[in-house]
Amino acid sequence: MTTGERIKKRRLQLGLTVPETADQLGVSVATMYRYEKGEIEKLPSTLLEPLARLLHTTPAWLMGWEDGDDCPPAGYLPLIRDVLTGGSLLDQRNIEEYIAPPPFQQADFALRCRGSDMANVRIFDGDIVFVRCQDVRNGEIAAVLLDGVPMLRTVYRVPDRLTLRAENPLIPDLALSGADQGRVRIVGRAVCFVSAVQHEADRAAGDWRRFVGRPAAARGGGVRPMDEAQARLAWQHEQHRLRGDKGSEKE
User: Fold this and answer.
1) Which of 32, 39, 53, 206 has the highest CB neighbour number within 10 Å of its CB?
2) Which residues, 6+ apart, have CB-to-CB distance to 88 below 8 Å?
3) Domains in the chain and their CATH numbers?
4) pLDDT tens by residue, 59-109
């Protein structure tokens, strides 16, 4: 499968049109069609990572650097490892797993909090923090890369100085000025988090999103992949069946 075929396959899985995709990436519709048709074989590095985020996949999968044609489940987000290996943030080597997105929030990826750096805002060790790649204002919590290592910090900017603050009085602020500011890359704004306990419970039980894309009977005959509404119904049916099985076991 070529890169263009992968782009088109993933775009169709997510229900995106070519004009919508082109608008999100800031390119023309004609250029987007050329990428999908393979007329432009090499994606520029400035476009590859935004496109991977938009399609909820990885640059490695889009470029065919990974084995197999199967893409991560539609709508799921990459959970970035503790320490990046360099290069693209969404390099497959940096991804621990794919997880369901948070309800009622838009996010591009997730980080796992380590240590007690953010304890005063009730984000604890092992919690999953969802991040959206957008500008961060003073006083907001951000995912930052400090010398290539991801962490969560509250960001404060003043002329010629950037301060990264851990929400823990035992950890000193890090104030950077001049060339030292180049050590930091502010990736995006933290939009919400899920406790480690709840995340593990959800992963063990699964949820309705894992049914999206599975084959289902279509009206008028034939088989089509389930949309979100059908996936929710399938999940509910499974939950009723499982509860029924457990009731039979008790009897």
Assistant:
1) 32
2) 48, 49, 52, 59, 94
3) 3-74 (1.10.260.40), 109-197 (2.10.109.10), 207-250 (no CATH)
4) 777 877 665 556 666 667 888 875 454 555 666 667 777 777 776 678 888
Distance CA 202, CA 205 (A): 5
Q: Burial code of 103-121, b = ≥16 C-beta within 10 A, e = fewer?
A: eeeebbbbbbbeeebbbee
DSSP string for residues in 135-160: ---TT-EEEEEETTEEEEEEEEEETT
In terms of pTM, does the model score above 0.70?
A: no
- Taking the C-alpha atoms of residue 251 and residue 20, their distance in angstroms, rounded to an integer, is 54
Residue at 181: amino acid letter: Q
